[in-house]
Amino acid sequence: MDKFRMMFQFLQSNQESFMNGICGIMALASAQMYSAFEFSCPCMPEYNYTYGIGLLFIPTIWFFLLGFVMNNNVSALTDEWKRPTGKRTKDPTILRYMFCSITQRSLIAPAVWVSVTLMDGKSFLCAFSIDLDLDKFGNYSLLTGLSEVEKLRLLARIPCKELFEHHEIREAASRYIKCISQACGWMFLLMITFMAFLIRAIRPCFSQAAFLKTKYWSHYIEIERKMFDDTCKEHAKSFAKVCIHQYFENISGEIRSFHHHRSGKGDSDDEDEDSRRSDEEKLLGIRAQDDMNKVLWNWHASKPALALRKDQVDGENNGRLNGEANGAANGFAKGHTPDVEKREWAVYYSKV
């Protein structure tokens, strides 16, 4: 159990590495899925092109959407994009950074699928076999005396070795199309690698301060959302425990008195009291359903401004809040608390 706990803590502290690992697993899964997939070209002029191109692009779109579904930052991005402005402004650069980060990870598995499919060449052969010129692959032509429909049917059977009689011509045509497919695959890999190199090389040319600011606040949005969910869970758990305890105490006071009269339960009662105090502290002063609903609604409709307050008594200012930002966050004009009229007090001491 300790090993699993350490692994879980490592994944929590290294969420970015964890997401990269998931993307790598998805990429390997896409390659393994293609190797286990049984490719069966229909060998019909009406369906060859649709089947071949569909096999190339439809799983690519599926892997791309699956990458978005498995990324935890999608919900944080959507929440930040759709939330009301309220007291906290929205920065479009942060939204763009989060979207680009999610998209980059989601493109890994589709890129692997396209590369493996093009390197294998079966889908390319199925899609473009009807466009071949068989005169290039033999000393005689098989299309002599055939109508246009029969020619297309004959060319569509090239991917199916059971249906095409001339083995040598079929082998030559298959190798020709597979060579073109592999060339397209290498060009695709070269283009993807070159684009990744440009992104890595151009990024330092821009302001690193702006990049670090955007990265910081995107991480903040993600962590804030997670901690808010955890706090809500803790509050709900404590609220339920206190509510259940009060219910049983109101229904029957004999249960509590029975436990008090039992011998040897002093330590247990102390532990129960400490647990109850802990639950009371986790309620954070919110003890009614309407109050909790109001808190949740205000969090969604008007998130607090990112200007932390430090409420402390200042000896020189007689307990005023520190700074204009803190006062403004509390709704006071110009960031200051209203002046309170001072009163003089006289204290008389008697020697009696």
The rounded Rg comes to 35 Å
Which class do the helix and strand fractions yield?
mainly alpha
**Ranges with pLDDT <50 over ≥5 residues?**
1-5, 7-13, 312-352
Helix content: 55-70%
Number of strands: 0
What multimeric state do the chains show? single chain
SSE arrangement:
Layout: H1 2-13, H2 15-36, H3 48-69, H4 73-82, H5 92-106, H6 108-120, H7 122-128, H8 148-156, H9 167-202, H10 208-251, H11 254-261, H12 266-282, H13 289-301, H14 324-329
Helix pairs in contact: 2-6, 3-5, 3-6, 3-7, 4-5, 5-10, 6-9, 7-9, 10-12
What do you see in this structure?
There is one protein chain. The protein starts with a helix and ends in a 23-residue tail after the last helix. It is built from 14 helices and no strands. The chain has helices at 2-13, 15-36, 48-69, 73-82, 92-106, 108-120, 122-128, 148-156, 167-202, 208-251, 254-261, 266-282, 289-301, 324-329. Residues 1-5, 7-13 and 312-352 have low confidence and may be disordered. With 352 residues, the chain is mainly alpha-helical.
